Amino acid sequence: MSLCKGCFDIHMHPAPDVTLRKFDDEEVAERIAKAGMAGFMIKNHFTETASRAQLLQKKFPQLIIKGGLVLNRPTGGCNPYAVENCGKLGGRICWMPTMDARSYQLKKHPDLTAEEAETYLYLLDEEGNLKPDVKRTIEAVVKSDMALATGHISAKEGLAVLHYGKESGVKILIATHADNPSDYYTMDQRQEVAAMGGYIEHCFFNVRRGDTKVGELVQEVKMLGAEHVVFSSDVGQPASPYPDEAIATFAQLLLEKGLTQTELDQCFKINPRRILVGE
Q1: Residue among 172, 198, 175 at smallest CA distance from 91
Q2: How many Å apart are CA 202 and CA 193, to the nearest integer?
Q3: Which positions ≥6 away from 107 have C-beta within 8 Å?
Q4: What is the pTM of this model?
């Protein structure tokens, strides 16, 4: 039996997109259904995907398929009205800025001028507090009963977002690919997320690229508890594997490094189901 059977993938990038992708919505749904996976989340950096998920769900009723919203510049940045609209469409995850996060762009392009950097999104004011529009957006996430994920913002911004989300009543908190060099969370910071009841997400993309050692992820699960960790693929790049392949490979590597089947099920099945369904 394939190790991806019964698993979810809460982080993948199908076409249509403004960037070339390996697969489209229908192709990936067919593969995931054939592999015996349980469902997935459609993610796009620049447009909501809840409407796409609704259409796809009708064709694949055996799967749980959800969409969401990333708060980059094309959706108005931290825009509570966009969140409200996505929630009405059934959106499940609201991500803070990703490709348009200022910290992300400065990591990728350290030669950006101050004027260029200013065109990207930073969520804290001069005193280090969340800006008012960010707070209003998080409050819209609460009203829409969506999960709140940090996207590509810095760990400093991300922790501020998650703390305010917790205080405001967000039920599901996610530190997005916390091992990614562009928004890296230290172990102390990951423990802080876990103490809030949040999830620390890790993606096969970073393992495949060599950013993260699988053994370190196993140690983290043992330290924080599997109930605080969620694994996903973050694939869709033209040279990447398909999500079912990525999840199966990721699971095999984790088992080989000492993760138990019970811990694996928690991170690939139970936790992501709660994120997608809200149960």
Answers
A1: 172
A2: 14
A3: 181, 182
A4: 0.97
